[in-house]
Design a protein that fits this description.
about 475 residues; alpha/beta; Enolase-like, domain 1; 3 domains; 5-stranded parallel β-sheet; about 25% strand
Length: about 475
């Protein structure tokens, strides 16, 4: 079979690229080695983790907050098995939706491991031992990423686990040790903390969420500590050993002292790495970096002119929505259009509660770049909507150019900020000023009023409700 485009990998980047290319008139095939479509995000990442986060949040509200709303629920309990089953059902429904979209858009789906024979031919090795070769005028590599580990850690997938195993445990840990204070560690730590586990986070950097604005990291640390999570920053892990049902983690603190942590499970969440194993990139002549990342130009084109790469296998943040945008960019570029993507305006989100969201530059990045800026900050506590719902933790922070007033970065901690951040992203896409945001009439009472107030604080230093 010959196709205009072959996409290897059916995660958010891959399946979106396939759909957009088909919409624009291409004959498209997609190759997926697993039996379900959707990649890491839909199967063992974004979707299942959010399902468990929502279930655990409902339970946590029942035991912690219902009473203050005048709701009496005597001795709330949870069925962890049912929570996991619900998560599996959400995943099944979502991945089934991707299969529907492939059929709707006349995209041929090949189940098996895709590997290059040369720059235009891909072999599909199927699970039944058979294989076939298909030909593509253009090919997109969209094979995603896998959890990283440290060289001295042995992941046994039982007690020393990655995010994949953490999403399908048979029990709630008594004491979950989390190595890594980034997005994945904090989200999954939150799930099990709400369900009664002790959770201890061990982070090498001086702060959790180390790539985010320092005010955000400070606020998130405060509220998660209030929820009972323990944090050990500036701790470099030196060993992880399993003894039966016990895991012992040793680390060195900033004073150079050895510290020992003991739990029944250890989640290793130290980031992710590009996944290109089995692709036989050498047969196609595609270059990769020492870290296994596929090298691409501004059009996401590899050194082989008809082969492109998107998502977690290329530079930039490993985010599903970044992969999706790159998939659209490549499909439209191949169709002769002139798409664009602004990597500065890809939002970053942490789905703890309160949520965390950010877009644009952090205050530290502006300082390091020597940019003259002004900052406006507004507390969620000052909003009527926050007080009404009881979600008073957090703030919105707007950073604007000191001379032009253009919004350069927006950072949020609070209820529903995962959705709220898009107001900032849209404003920044059109190069709005802080004054522009401050002068837009926002509905009352809403969480979004914090954006208006923070923007006014950045613009003229005079928020109205603070």
């Amino acid at each position: 079979m010959k196709y205009d485009l072959i996409v290897i990998g059916s995660g958010p980047g891959g399946y979106i690229a396939a759909i957009r290319a088909s919409q624009l008139g291409s004959k498209v095939a997609i190759i997926e080695k697993y039996s379900t479509l959707g990649g890491t995000c839909l199967n063992v990442g974004c979707i299942p983790s959010k399902a468990l986060l929502d279930s655990s949040h409902h339970y946590y509200d029942a035991i912690k907050h219902f009473d203050e709303h005048g709701i009496s629920v005597e001795n709330p309990t949870f069925d962890f098995g049912k929570m996991v089953a619900r998560k599996a059902n959400v995943v099944e429904t979502t991945t089934g939706g991707i299969k529907y979209l492939m059929d709707k858009n006349n995209i041929d789906v090949y189940e098996g491991l895709g590997s290059f024979e040369d720059a235009t031919h891909v072999k599909v090795s199927k699970n039944d031992g058979t294989s076939e070769v298909i030909e593509g005028t253009n090919i997109i590599i969209a094979t995603g990423s896998k959890p990283s580990t440290l060289p001295f850690i042995s992941i046994d997938k039982e007690r020393v686990i990655t995010s994949t195993e953490a999403l399908k445990l048979k029990e709630v840990p008594k004491h979950l040790l989390v190595i890594g204070g980034g997005v994945i560690g904090l989200e999954l730590g939150s799930v099990y903390k709400r369900l009664g586990a002790d959770v201890t986070v061990i982070e090498y950097a001086p702060t959790i969420t180390p790539t985010m604005d320092k005010d955000v990291s400070k606020e998130l640390t405060k509220v998660l500590k209030k929820q009972g999570m323990k944090f050990n920053t500036s701790h470099g892990v030196t060993s992880v050993e399993r003894n039966g049902d016990e895991v012992v983690v040793k680390a060195t603190n900033k004073k150079g002292e050895e510290v020992t942590f003991t739990g029944d499970y250890c989640l290793v969440s130290v980031g992710r790495r590009p996944y290109t194993e089995g692709l036989a990139l050498d047969k196609a002549g595609v270059k990769v970096t020492e870290r296994g990342m596929v090298e691409v130009n501004d059009h996401l084109q590899t050194n082989v002119s008809n082969i492109y790469a998107i998502g977690d296998v290329v530079r930039g943040a490993m985010l599903a929505h970044k992969a999706e945008e790159e998939g659209v960019v490549v499909a439209e570029y191949l169709a002769g259009q002139k798409p664009h993507i602004d990597y500065n305006l890809i939002p970053g989100i942490v789905y703890t509660w309160p949520e965390v969201a950010a877009v644009g530059k952090t205050e530290q990045e502006l300082k390091d770049a020597g940019v003259e800026y002004k900052a406006g900050k507004f507390s969620m506590r000052a909003l009527g909507r926050s007080r009404a719902s009881g979600d008073i933790d957090g703030f919105v922070k707007v950073l604007a150019d000191k001379n032009t007033d253009e919004v350069l970065g927006v950072h949020m901690v609070g209820a529903r900020v995962a959705d709220l951040i898009m107001e900032a992203a849209v404003a920044m896409e059109f190069r709005a000023s802080a004054e522009d945001l401050a002068r837009i009439c926002h509905g009352h009472p809403t969480y979004s009023e914090a954006v208006k107030e923070a923007a006014k604080a950045a613009w003229d230093g005079k928020p109205l409700n603070a």
